[in-house]
Design a protein that fits this description.
Layout: H1 2-12, H2 14-22, H3 37-46, E1 68-69, H4 87-101, E2 120-121, H5 126-129, E3 147-152, H6 157-167, E4 184-185, E5 194-205, E6 211-222, E7 234-239, H7 246-250, H8 254-260, E8 277-280, E9 285-288, H9 300-312, H10 331-335, H11 351-362, E10 366-367, H12 375-386, E11 397-398, E12 412-413, E13 421-423, E14 441-443, H13 453-457, H14 471-476, H15 483-491, H16 494-505
Parallel strand pairs: 1-10
Antiparallel strand pairs: 2-4, 3-7, 5-6, 8-9, 11-12, 13-14
Helix pairs in contact: 2-8, 4-11, 9-11, 12-16
Bound molecules: heme C (2 copies).
């Protein structure tokens, strides 16, 4: 941890100092470079937290700004393009969608340009896990269809820390199984093993005596086909995240995110919040991390390239290993055919493929909110503020004027996240360091669209490993920096708890 912080300091330099001092100026953050003085003042006013809960705030229902999809709440609610796409961007969206849904096949194959699958893999298409772009689910009977188990060992001393930096990794992979457990393999090769999850009961009693039973998962790898797993390797279970609004998140001004960070809890509210940093590009420069449950990727493209490589086994200019996550200890895997021979370039998914996939993944509409003016929803919103949820699930941002994607630029958005890392306590800890995130830290997930999770694809499982079966269970797992907030929820009257959950369902 200490080492990670030092690297962070030395590489980020000014930005880190800025993050530290920002909280001192919590009332008046320094102006944003992409805005003039008038806009800075306007935006500060617009993004202040709500104070009047008697009626909805202006534009509150349009939680994705002009990318919001209104009046459409059926099963394809997460699958629509942002309505403000230009005709050209819409064309790219549709081409990207085909790539997102494409099934990759093993090499050699007559279907050239679609081969290169694996040799080890978790799924054959993005869409297999991100079903209709909704969230994933935990494994069932050893079948993990939209879930991955990340593997890593702690760095030991300077040598392994140096290796991590040199490779541009976020941590040290398992020496045999690599960065992730792959539960499928092409014909002729053994898969790595199967994920097994079992649940124990945890009883929780609310202030008014209501009892709730949570399920606490434990994970193991059944039939590890390449020998026993290194005793030091930690397992980090993750369900697939919803795909909506990602381009908007990338368009948030980093200054706005850093201004919320309070790593040493200078304002004494018990909530620190640290910016994640992650190595980016060939030079492995440290940049602000935004995507993934531990904010381990800076851009939608980086996350998508990592998914193609680790989950599907497809190489790209960003992730050039054509054998995906095979390690040198998996010699047979490395000797299997790959899809590079059949390509013009030297990767299975060349730049145009990466660009279209990224366009699609960045421009999915955020559904409009329902019932913003409903009295119970407004009451629940007030309870959400009163319980301090808003300290991490920050309501509003205005995206950069100079954002690379026009449709994402200068939008008032309501993601309900600060995109920072928080210590969430032992109950949610996976013990795995990922970049600057330690084994107890997670990125606050955006809550927009969460009420439509079930409608979108039938999967209503919450938190990083999908252990929570209801929104209330998700709240009750909050610990660490969120302990006080959870306690406040538990002490509420039933009517107020119901209203708070009703508010979440309206997002
Ligand atoms: C095996 C299942 C699986 C496949 C296949 C898969 N994903 Fe994912 N996806 C996940 C999981 C799990 C996460 C959370 C990752 C993490 O935190 O480490 C995720 C996260 C993401 C995110 C970040 C979302 C956020 O809110 O931060 C993006 C973007 C993404 N995937 C894109 C893709 C693309 C593009 C493809 C196809 C190339 C793909 N994924 C294939 C399971 C999958
Ligand atoms: C200290 C910061 C913090 C506070 C305070 C906080 N949360 Fe969270 N919340 C998080 C983080 C981080 C996660 C992700 C944890 C994980 O996946 O293990 C999360 C997850 C969630 C989820 C599940 C989201 C998903 O996509 O699965 C819900 C719902 C939620 N929080 C609601 C609330 C409510 C309601 C409150 C107030 C009672 C609250 N949170 C207070 C940080 C916070």
């Amino acid at each position: 941890m200490k080492t990670a912080r030092n690297i962070f300091k030395s590489i980020i330099g000014g930005a880190f100092v800025f993050g530290l001092t920002a909280s001192v100026f919590a009332e008046a953050p320094p102006p944003r470079a992409d805005l003039n003085i008038t806009d800075n003042a306007r935006i500060r006013a617009v993004t202040l937290p709500a104070t009047d809960f008697s009626k909805p705030e202006a534009y509150e229902a349009m939680q994705g700004g002009a990318t919001t999809l209104a009046g459409h709440h059926g099963r394809d609610v997460y699958t629509k393009p942002a309505p403000n796409l230009s005709p050209e961007a819409l064309l790219n969206f549709n081409l990207g969608k085909a790539l997102f849904e494409k099934f990759w096949v093993s090499s050699p194959s007559s279907t050239q340009a679609s081969d290169g699958l694996g040799p080890l893999y978790n799924a054959r298409s993005c869409h297999s896990c991100h079903l209709r772009n909704g969230r994933g689910e935990p494994p069932r009977d050893g079948d993990a269809t939209s879930f991955v188990l990340r593997l890593a060992r702690p760095a030991e001393g300077e040598e392994s820390q140096k290796q991590i930096e040199k490779m541009g990794w976020v941590n040290l992979p398992d020496p045999v199984y690599g960065k992730q457990l792959q539960d499928f393999a092409v014909p002729g090769l053994q898969a790595e093993g199967k994920v097994q999850v079992s649940y124990g009961d945890v009883e929780v009693t609310m202030g008014d005596g209501t009892a709730v039973t949570l399920r606490k998962p434990s994970y193991r790898i059944a039939e590890p086909n390449y020998g026993p797993i290194d005793a030091k390797t930690t397992l980090s279970p993750r369900i697939a995240q919803p795909m909506i609004g990602l381009g908007l998140i990338e368009a948030i001004a980093p200054d706005d995110i850093l201004a919320g960070a309070d790593p040493d809890d200078k304002n004494g509210d018990g909530i620190s919040g640290r910016a994640a940093t992650t190595p980016e590009g060939n030079g492995h420069a440290q940049v602000l991390g935004l995507f993934g449950w531990k904010a381990q990727h800076a851009t939608v493209r980086a996350q998508s390239a990592a998914a193609l490589n680790t989950d599907i086994g497809i190489s790209s200019p960003d992730e050039p290993a054509s054998h995906g996550d095979c390690t040198s200890a998996e010699a047979k895997c490395l000797s299997m055919a790959d899809g590079v021979q059949s390509r013009l370039g030297d990767s299975e998914a060349p730049d145009p493929v990466m660009e279209l996939l990224t366009d699609y993944s960045s421009t999915l509409a955020v559904p409009a909110r329902r019932d913003v003016g409903n009295p119970e929803v407004l009451e629940g919103k007030q309870q959400f503020y009163a319980a301090g949820c808003i300290a991490c699930h920050r309501s509003k941002f205005v995206t950069r004027r100079d954002a690379a994607r026009k449709e994402s630029a200068f939008q008032l958005i309501w993601p309900y996240s600060d995109f920072l890392l928080h210590d969430m306590g032992e109950g949610l800890a996976d013990g795995q360091q990922v970049g600057t995130a330690d084994g107890r830290e997670w990125r606050t997930p955006p809550l927009w669209g969460i009420g439509l999770s079930g409608v979108a694809n039938g999967r209503r499982f919450f938190l990083h490993d999908g252990r929570a079966r209801t929104l209330e269970e998700a709240i009750l797992w909050h610990g660490g920096e969120a302990e006080l907030s959870k306690d406040r929820y538990m002490k509420m009257k039933k009517k107020d708890r119901d209203a708070l959950v009703r508010f979440l369902e309206s997002l």
